[in-house]
């Protein structure tokens, strides 16, 4: 926000409220004032129902009368995706097969310059697809990168995976499937007085590596080790400060901000801002999304403060480490992550990824090194694929999803 706007606001503000989104490694901020001059009437709050209709589960008519692949995809699109970008394209032109492509218009070149998180977000999708197939007695034979893996920096037009679907009476249902409609990223303050119990940590780690396949090493820290807990908080705070104050990374988040019901309904992706006050300010032209806020602007400093409070409320942190960082491993890490989050959901636990320190842009070099050292990921190639805060918190609203047909290529 420029100084003119700041001055304007300083003179009129009776009560300042800063609104944050900590989603997808992203942030937005707006200094909002509830003043007599700000007309809130007509500004809509909340996520419009149509943007979250996917969370009701598949259209019941899909279950039996139409292509079963639509039913499976209705669940797969509920997978977590960095910045809620939903970069999935499902090609149904081959019978009994789903070919998954990456939508190259939906990447995050600034905050995810190697598209590692995009690949993880394809892993989360494939895992939910596999689970849904099991529900329908189908074996999903997944072949990753059938035409070769993407290079180290960016995805291309080749498929991410083919998924062959074959009826198989021996496939086992996955109990975690029951949590798919309940799983949500939770960015609230957590209850610092409630430690995450040991069996819950164990359930999450076990879920990440089904049938004992040690794809990822899962670590955690809880209230019983305050010194290390504080070190996690310190790194997360610093990484967050960096993301907020590097103009090109904050601008990338601004680009996927959806402010108010009409924008959310129009896009059904990205990061939703629903506060009536913010919507009002936006509509009045007082939220300049074309310009990064300055380092010392209240919009930046207040967010750092708010994020600190959330970190202080967090009773546990969890991380996932892989011994390598190739494209196959990144997909596997995504599969492991969504399983782990579903297990957390089953335990009544809230979770929010903290991707900032894991991001591979120059300004994050120190937090990246610090979290890798803290997680014991010191061997060459060893990579912290996910880092998250974990705890107990009130339930949150689901995040928008586009229409099923928007993902499908026929
Ligand atoms: C690889 C990956 C990285 C993510 N990083 C963050 C993050 O840094 N902060 C955050 O709040 N959410 C993060 N998320 C969660 C997404 O923002 C979230 O999945 C998306 O907004 C959809 O919401 P849902 O998980 O509630 O369905 C991440 C998700 C994935 C898969």
> For the record, what is the CATH homologous superfamily label of the domain at 49-180 and 397-409?
putative nitroreductase (tm1586), domain 2
Q: How is the biggest beta sheet arranged?
A: 5 strands, mixed
Structural class: alpha+beta
Total beta-strand segments: 13
Q: Would you identify the regions where 5 or more consecutive residues have pLDDT less than 50?
A: 1-44
What ligand molecules are bound, each kind once?
A: flavin mononucleotide
SSE topology string:
HEEHEEHEEHEHHEHEHHEHEHEE
Helix content: 25-40%
Q: In a few lines, what is going on in this structure?
A:
This protein has 410 residues and is α+β, with helices and mostly antiparallel strands. 34% of the residues lie in helices and 15% in strands.
Report on this structure.
- It is a single chain.
- With 410 residues, the protein is an alpha+beta fold.
- It has a domain at 49-180 and 397-409: putative nitroreductase (tm1586), domain 2 (NADH Oxidase), CATH 3.40.109.
- The protein is built from eleven helices and 13 strands.
- The strands form four sheets. A five-stranded mixed β-sheet has the order 5-6-4-3-13, with helices on one face. A four-stranded antiparallel β-sheet has the order 7-10-12-11. A two-stranded antiparallel ribbon has the order 1-2.
- Strand 8 (257-259), helix 7 (260-267) and strand 9 form a beta-alpha-beta unit.
- The longest helix is centred in the N-terminal third of the chain and has 20 residues, at 116-135.
- Bound molecules: flavin mononucleotide.
């Amino acid at each position: 926000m420029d100084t003119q706007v700041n001055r304007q606001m300083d003179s009129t503000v009776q009560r300042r409220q800063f609104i944050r989104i900590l989603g997808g490694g992203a942030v937005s901020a707006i200094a909002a004032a509830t003043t007599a001059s700000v007309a809130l009437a007509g500004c809509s709050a909340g996520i419009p129902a149509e943007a979250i209709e996917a969370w009701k589960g598949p259209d019941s008519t899909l279950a039996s009368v139409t292509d079963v692949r639509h039913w499976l995809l209705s669940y797969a699109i509920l997978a977590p995706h960095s910045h809620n970008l939903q970069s999935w394209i499902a090609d149904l032109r081959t019978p009994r097969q789903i070919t998954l492509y990456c939508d190259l218009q939906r990447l995050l070149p600034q905050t995810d310059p190697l598209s590692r998180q995009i690949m993880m977000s394809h892993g989360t999708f494939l895992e939910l697809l596999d689970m849904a197939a099991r529900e329908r007695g189908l074996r999903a034979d997944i072949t990753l990168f059938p035409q070769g893996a993407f290079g180290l920096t960016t995805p291309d037009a080749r498929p991410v995976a083919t998924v062959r679907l074959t009826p198989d009476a021996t496939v086992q249902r996955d109990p975690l499937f029951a949590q798919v409609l309940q799983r949500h990223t939770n960015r609230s303050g957590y209850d610092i007085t409630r430690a995450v119990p040991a069996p819950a940590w164990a359930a999450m780690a076990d879920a990440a590596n089904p049938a004992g396949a040690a794809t990822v090493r899962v670590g955690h820290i809880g209230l019983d080790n305050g010194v290390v807990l504080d070190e996690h908080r310190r790194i997360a705070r610093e990484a967050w400060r960096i993301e907020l104050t590097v103009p090109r990374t904050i601008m990338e988040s601004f680009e996927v901000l959806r402010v108010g019901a009409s924008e959310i309904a129009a896009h059904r992706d990205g990061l939703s801002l629903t506060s009536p006050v913010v919507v009002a300010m936006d509509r009045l032209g007082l939220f300049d999304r074309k310009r990064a806020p300055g380092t010392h602007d209240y919009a930046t400093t207040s967010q750092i403060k708010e994020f600190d409070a959330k970190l202080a409320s967090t009773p546990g942190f969890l991380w996932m480490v892989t011994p390598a960082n190739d494209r196959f491993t990144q997909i596997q890490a995504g599969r492991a992550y969504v399983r782990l989050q579903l297990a957390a959901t089953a335990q009544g636990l809230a979770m929010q990824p903290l991707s900032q320190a894991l991001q591979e842009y120059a300004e994050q070099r120190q937090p990246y090194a610090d979290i890798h050292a803290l997680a014991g990921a010191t061997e060459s190639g060893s990579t912290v694929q996910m880092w998250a805060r974990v705890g107990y918190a009130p339930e949150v609203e689901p995040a928008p999803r586009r229409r099923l047909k928007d993902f499908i290529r026929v």
